[in-house]
Amino acid sequence: MSVVITVAPTGPIASKEDNPHLPTQPVEIADAVARAHEAGAAVAHIHLRDTEHRPTADLGIARRTMDLIAERCPILIQLSTGVGLSVPFEERAALVELRPRMATLNPCSMSFGGGEFRNPPADVRRLAARMRELGVKPELEIYDTGHLDACLRLRDEGLLDDEPMQFSIVLGVAGGMAATPDNLLTLVRRLPAGAVWQVIAIGRRNLELTAIGLALGGNARAGLEDALYLRKGELSPGNLPLVERAVALARDLDLGIAGVEEATSMLGLSAVIA
Ligand code: KMH
Ligand code: ZN
Fold first, then answer.
1. Residues with beta carbon < 5 A to ion ligand 2?
2. Domain hosting residue 165, numbered range
3. Residue 273 located in a structural domain
4. pTM (2 decimals)?
5. How far is the centre of ligand 1, averaged over its atoms, from the C-alpha of 266 (Å)?
6. Which of 57, 174, 183, 236 qualifies as a FRET site for 202, CA 20 to 30 Å off?
């Protein structure tokens, strides 16, 4: 059995002050992604920053970053439509017009740390419909049990395809589920049959919950978006050690590491997007 490893190199929150190895500029992101791909990542979850390192949905920056990544390696690009808490929903949603292979779909509004993550129901429905039209596969980020129900409602309304649905169970965001094995199990038990899923474990319990997710049959995500430290007091010197650690965890569990072609089929992506 194989697992898909996703690298999440940047995220919306951390800064270079938090970890000087955080890639924020297109070339830095593309280089980090290419190294992660060499280490086994088949998917890259991409957030963009402007020249001041602030989260942005600028389409030019997004296009350039996607092109630089594609020049370096064939990794499957998953654009974040979460982008950053301060960016308006319409700008975030416009990113799917670039037709990445996948993009995040965050189904509900919520408190997010000290801020607010705005995903109003009507906007989410419009974005889901547009992604479906464009053939951009949603990566459904669920931060709480009700978010799963919201996704299932979208499916029942015909706005999401279920072959297969792709979930990320996000644990450890203040405002969402706490990072506990119990919360993870509760969600895994409730996923629809055939769903593919991964754990996104934010912060201190990243390693442990990533390992539990792999042992339970999930895929894995690794990178500085989710964990700035390798262990207490030890900043990760880049994304690569985190990706290598997830790959090693999977191999120790006798799991294969899916290449791009295998990941394309496991995630139910269309073979080519025109
Ligand atoms: N860092 C994630 C927990 C998205 O990419 O669409 C939140 C996020 C959402 O960044
Ligand atoms: Zn993200």
1. 80
2. 2-266
3. no
4. 0.97
5. 22
6. 57
